Amino acid sequence: MRSVIMKVALVVAMALGVSLSALPSASAATAAATAAGCPDGVCSSKYLNYSGQQQINGYYCGPAATRAALSVRLINVPTQSSLGASLGTTVNGTDHIGLVTGVLRNYVGGWYESKYIGGTYAAQWQIDLLIADVRLNINNAFPIVANVVGYAYDTNGGYHSYSGGHYLTVVGYEQGGNVSVIFDPAQGVQYKMETYLLAHWIAGRGYSA
After folding, report:
1. Among 16, 33, 59, 115, which one has the highest count of C-beta atoms within 10 angstroms of its own C-beta?
2. CA–CA separation, 31 vs 102, rounded Å?
3. CB neighbours of 107 closer than 8 A, spacing ≥ 6?
4. What is the mean pLDDT of the chain?
5. What is the C-alpha to C-alpha distance for residues 185 and 23, in angstroms, rounded to an integer?
6. Mode of pairing for the β-strands spanning 189-194 and 46-47
7. pLDDT per position as a tens digit, 139-190
8. Which residues of 92-129 are buried (b: 16+ CB within 10 A; e: fewer)?
9. Which of 120, 118, 117 is nearest to 209 (CA)?
10. Coil, helix or strand for 153?
């Protein structure tokens, strides 16, 4: 279960309109970051070792993204096909992020929760929350699985468009979480994206963190 102290800090910050990225780390989060190789409690950048596979068909982005997340923590990583069965994935895809959260919790325990961003664009507090989640999850070796829709540009100007929705995995960060490192199972590639743009890309959907 996520640290109660960290959750209270997030809630208080949102209520006060304070940027979560500006909050000092709670003692529990600092200890976790130190254990993860961040001796000062704050990493400017961190990357997880993972096994990423290109999705085996046009509608298995959910299973492939979930598999990439699980590969960080499991020795025997389930196949895309077995995860597709667990997620209820059909030719229409994986219905919603809550299914991914449930499967992640089944394999690695109760860390993961579903976070939703309603509307067309993310609000500032939702951007701040995603940045905080990226830092917290990656520091503790729990990759984020995100359900995105529409298009976005990565830091190299690469264009990524999924009008029908798509799942991908956040496997690292730079600039203290302001840039997310993404594994995209559509082509089986990795790229970087400013986290505020990722939040807008998620808008209308959600993520497991």
Report:
1. 33
2. 27
3. 70, 73, 74, 78
4. 86
5. 33
6. unpaired
7. 999 999 999 999 999 999 999 999 999 999 999 999 999 999 999 999 999 9
8. ebbebbebbbebbeebbeebbbbbebeeeebeebbbbb
9. 117
10. strand
CB 208 within 8 A of CB 100: yes
Q: What do you get for the CA distance between the two ends of the chain, in Å?
A: 12
**pLDDT class for 35, splitting at 50, 70, 90?**
very low
Location of structure tokens 């807008």? 200
Domains and CATH numbers, the chain: 43-208 (3.90.70.10)
Which residue in this structure is represented by tokens 């970051």?
Answer: 33
Amino acid sitting at position 191: Y
Q: Are 168 and 84 within 8 A, CB to CB?
A: no
Q: At 197, which amino acid appears?
A: L
For residue 81, count other CB atoms closer than 10 A to its CB.
13
Please tell me the pTM assigned to this model. Answer: 0.82
Please answer whether residues 137 and 170 qualify as being in contact, where contact means their C-beta atoms are separated by less than 8 angstroms.
Answer: yes
